[in-house]
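Hi all, long-time lurker, first post. I run a small reading group and we've been trying to get comfortable going from sequence to structure in the token notation. Rather than ask abstract questions, I figured I'd post a concrete chain and ask someone more experienced to write out its structure so we can walk through it together at our next meeting. Sequence below, copied exactly:
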Amino acid sequence: MLTTPEVVVLGIIGLLFVLIFATRLKIELIAIIILLILGVSGLVPPTEVVAGFSSSVVITLIGLFIITNALEETGVIQWIAQRLNRIGEGSEVKLITLFMATGAALSLIMNNVAAGAVLLPAAVRVARGSGISVSKLLMPMSFGTLVGGMATYLTTANILMSELLITRGFDGLGMLDFIPMGGLIVLAGLIYMLLIGRRLLPERTSQSTRFNQQDLKDTYELTDRMWNVRVLPNSHLANKTIRESEINAELGLTIAAIWHQRQTITIPKPDHVIYPGDELLIVGREDRLQQLIAWNNKLISEEKRKEGHELSIEPIEIIIAPRSDAIGQTLSDVKLNSKSGLLAISLWRDGHSQHTDVRKMPLQVGDAVLVIGQSEDIQNLSNNPNYILPSGEYSNLSINTAKAPFAIIITALVLFLSIFNILPLSIAMLGGAAAMVLTGCLTMEQFYEAVQWRVIFLVAGMLPLSIAITDTGLADRIGNIMVTALADTSPLILIAGMVLLTMLVVQIIGGQVTALLVGPIAINAALQMGVDPRAMSVAVAMACSMAFLTPIAHPVNILMMGPGGYKFSDFFKVGVGITIVTMVTMMIGLTTIWGV
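-- Answer (accepted) --
Happy to help. Here is the structure in token form:
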């Protein structure tokens, strides 16, 4: 019979899932709401409710974010990407090996999403030069960062599982606890991708990538979404500014260009006046176009266009970067036109292009936005960390490479101190972060901007829920149920069951939350069956990175969706195999390395 505290905790967990799937609240805000409920309910002592903000996990993550950012700002990571450009042209097998292995290597010392974001433009450029579809490279690269995250302590879920062990009175985990088994998984994943996975990868375009002008127009179906319309004297648009016409607000259509008195005006500003006789290049759905025609405007067929002018646009694609300020905002909110001189005409999400009402859609990590603009405006945008230009035609010019040696030395020293337990990882990381500022690798403004506060509040807000799951006895109860169900099996089967459970939950809510929910239960189940809780924790932590089956399971997958032109089914098709390979390799590692 469940006790009242256990029922309350289950209710809070249920509320957590409701808030995640039934509301538009950001996950970090949901974490704070859960924290407040736990504090008000008295399930967790007041001192422990807010203890997450001062925990070693949070300090370690803050230091990791800052050190990673310094490696990017000083050009260390970009230098690696440039080397890939030079040696990357070759066969499909060679390129998959190169980018998957590099993604795994970078994930040993930096955030998976950051590693993917840095390598993305390099993969596109190399694919173009080699005549290979970019969809053949981006998913292996994404999966490479995920398996690489299993081989290092410096992954959020791995750090969290270590903290859960410490709170139960056990020794925490370190770098050397993850590298041996994680290395086997990286190798096995690479072999799978080369032998089987690459044959299942889609080829969305016939050429190397879709990032030339015609490929972009075809991919975004612009040919069927672009219309030339003449403004008649009695038109609803006549003698009004674009803003006053409400063509976007009411119809969701975009005016990409205007032909006025023998002059083409590309990217007209919102205060530009539309005159009778003007020709408009409209982007949007045909049903909305019919509404525009009903506003007393005339559709111009190809045959009847004025001789001597061609009203057209040359687009380029940008991607919403991890940690972008644009996440959660609409295109109207970010004001690309007024701030950057660029006009957004379409958006790519979940394998489909959107042309209508795109300015009203909240932006997500990995969204690809098709824009038009002048070369200098696009170049300026390439220096904006909120966006990634995967075409590689525009490069970031603001990297301070003179400080790169300092960043490398500091990072190496932090890893040395951590691996050999000379200093606690949280202290080593924080010291490394301070050293990055003292040596000029980062300014104080960059120091603060580097921290992913979304992750910090998510982790600190969810830690009390893990405490409540343990303190109320719920973890013991669920662990006992699992042990009883698997009483006649081996400890390895118990761990395999927890790994499978963790992996399935990860596909829905991500690894960070999963570690805090499943972690306490897994540790208790291990203790009840006499299994080494550290071995169980390593397995569950690694399972939190097994986000192979859906693109929404991890932000690095989402980041690759647009540029790769992937569909949801593509990830499942390729991901099932690497999931099985990872689980089998993990069981072998638990037997041979951990003695389970």
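A couple of things your group might point at:
The CA atoms of residues 89 and 130 lie 5 Å apart.
The first strand starts at residue 226 and ends at 231.
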